[in-house]
Amino acid sequence: MDPVRNPYVPGAGASPPELAGRHELFTQAGIALQRALAGKSARGFIATGLRGVGKTVVLGRAQQLAESAGYLTCFIEASEDKPLGQLLAPHVRRMMLELDRLGAVTEQVKRGLRVLKSFAAGLRIHHPMGFSIELDVEPERGTADSGDLETDLPDMISALGLAARSRQTGVALFVDEIQGLSELDMGALIMAMHRVMREGLPVVLLGAGLPHVVAMTGRSRSYAERLFEFPVLGPLSPDETAEALRPPAEREGVDFTQAAVDEVIRITQGYPYFIQEWAYHAWNVAHGDMILPGDIAVATEVSLTSLDAGFFRMRYERLTPREREYCQAMAELGPGAHRSGEIAERMNARTAALAPLRTALIGKGMIYSPAHGEVAFTVPLFENYLLRIRAMGSDPAYSED
């Protein structure tokens, strides 16, 4: 069929044509946003899940809800390479200047700009060569200028919330890949949200991250569980998978046979990224106005080639040879979670000796611990990829292109 009319979008973070199975979460986000604007306590959420379940898409759609409700918003992706303060400051500056343009300058907006100037000065204490921000105001001396993020960020976000309230609007912060924050930055962010909740300010945080972010926030601040909900984004049910497949095709005058739908469900196991990948390629190879099981079979070959060359290989290449051995041992044990002792036995090593490898892989976002003493892959179907590598008898990271 015509690839130009293909409605499916397998790109990372791209919003699919039908966001199946996530409606309850958007309802939850809408309630939190409306409560915050009304000056009522509003718990944000940090959605958790494996790679490819649509966490970024959910945040993007929630950002659209916030903007429709009149919020000022910022969307950042946490990074190990850049501290939280440097990620946030340019967005805070933009939002403060937007508040400044909304009408006659209020004292709270003027103070917010001064606090931001102080905050930027504090950031320069630790990053003198790597950060600058321009504002034509005097700093608010003694506020948010210590250089200690756990002290300064709550002051900054509180000043932003007060300025937004003076304009009868709110601020929504969206943090993707939130597990990428350092423990210090995570603690500062949690403290900032605790402060604005205590003061009843219209500031909402919505985040997304890998499953171990729940334990990470708990270690950082024990009261985090009272500030946020932690909804789990998992694979779609068979009915939800059909909902993701059929309506987009029907809008183009095309349909899937039930057998084709069943085959997509079986192969993708309901993971949204893979559903889009298989549907995209099935559309491109199909003839006529009906997608058949044979089209799914061809799409499987194309999809696996594409995923092996990109989605899987990109993550595999980040691993050291020893980390690859650890992952290969996990794959050979089969799908699901495995005890650290089982993996160590498979590698003919002591469990304690492999602990640094386990920690490094968790830090790289390749594995997580669903229960004490157990680990599982964060990338769905990654074990199948590793088994294909073993069957080929070669390491794609070192093969010639």
From TrEMBL:
MF terms in GO: ATP binding
Domain Orc1-like AAA ATPase: 19-204
InterPro entries given in the database record: AAA_16, P-loop_NTPase
Pfam family membership, one: AAA_16
Gene3D superfamilies listed in its UniProt record: P-loop containing nucleotide triphosphate hydrolases
Keywords for the protein's UniProt record, in alphabetical order: ATP-binding, Nucleotide-binding
SUPFAM superfamilies registered for this protein in UniProt: P-loop containing nucleoside triphosphate hydrolases
UniProt name for this protein: ATP-binding protein
Organism for this UniProt entry: Acetobacter sacchari
